[in-house]
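ENTRY TYPE: protein
CONTENTS: sequence, structure tokens:
***
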Amino acid sequence: MANGGGPGTYGPGIGGDALANTTVGGSVGGLRHFIRFRAEQSSPLVAVRFPFLSADLPGYGGGTGGRWKLELFADDGTADNFPSGPALASQPVEESIVSSNGRLVSFTTPYTTTRGALYHLVFDNIDLDPTNNFFSLNHWTRLSFDEDGPLNERFAESDWKNGYFQFGAWHAVESMCPIADIEYQNGAHQGMSYGEASYLCPEAEQDCTNEQLVGEINGSTKMARERFTVSCVDRVVLGVGVRLLRVEGTSSPLVVSLRNGADEEIDSVTIPAWKITVGPAPSFEQPITSDDFGHGARWVSARFDEPHTLLEGGTYSLRLSSTGGTYWAWVMRSLQWYGYTPQTAFEDGWSEYTVDGSTWLSLGRVEFENDLQFYFITPCAADLNGDQVVDGSDLASILGAWGAVCECLCPADVDRDGFINGSDLAEMLGAWGTCP
């Protein structure tokens, strides 16, 4: 998610409600679990960071934590997209009873991936007693299993998924999003590192308030926003998507406003209330229920009347308000504190709230480490001028930048590998015509 999103989105584009674990071994878990990903680089895959839960957290792990190995597999090429063939890389891992939200495993002999190909990282419990010696992987999940639409707007369903092997077959998990930071030898990273929700103030944090946990949107007094400074390159945005819910009885529309650094409106979209799912408000009380996690929130999107260019280095905000009634928007915390790289989250901004219409404070239990669940709709990757058509003008741009080395991002670097060369030209020609 380098610099805030991949082709087609700018922003987190990630939706979810809470953490959920899957056990690798134990009495109910399969012995093998996978994370499927579409490689963003043609480079040796050298390391993976992920949330590891072991025997120091009873139920999440047991015994010694288990001996296991991390392996890389190719995709089977079927519609199911499961692991297949011999391991392309394999790394044995010693057992540990100590959990880590950011455990790092490095491959002694890394495999060179091919950009655009599907691969699977497989966590395999090879302990002699895997029922008693086991561990868990943590994932970002949505608690409503009947939610329509994609789990995340950032990733295609095929490109970022987790699952397990049990009863002689592979199975995909539909409601979970893997948390992982995949590192390549060329210095690039890919993955997703959101993994904490804000729903209750700990007793030890006396200055924590309910208002800072979840974004309440009611009129132009109680509002939520994402404040951000565009990094690397200018961004053309065509529209916006947010994940939230409305309280029953709310009939006034949601207003999503794109604003500049002086808090002046650039453009806005008005989303009718009926398009936004009705759900329960959080209670902020024990015992915690799924209502407090925002399990009723859903994605909704709208397009601006015209494209807008967000300038590199410019500060902007995306503000959520209403003309009446109440909406709720939940945030998610990035895990950079645990060693995940900024490229695996939205590094350009953070979420804020106001209860008086003018004083903005950091939204989320841990200050400045949370984002709203939102994204900007952007042109397809090869549409360099944002006119929704890949044609001669885009080709001229790529030829004009030919041979450049990109320290951050270059608009003409279609494949995001840091170089403008034949691979970018090939992707542009493959996308020729109207953007989907």
Q: What stands out?
A: The two ends are 21 Å apart (CA to CA). The chain has three domains: 2-192, 202-377, 389-434. The longest strand covers residues 100-112. Residues 226 and 343 are 18 Å apart (CA to CA).
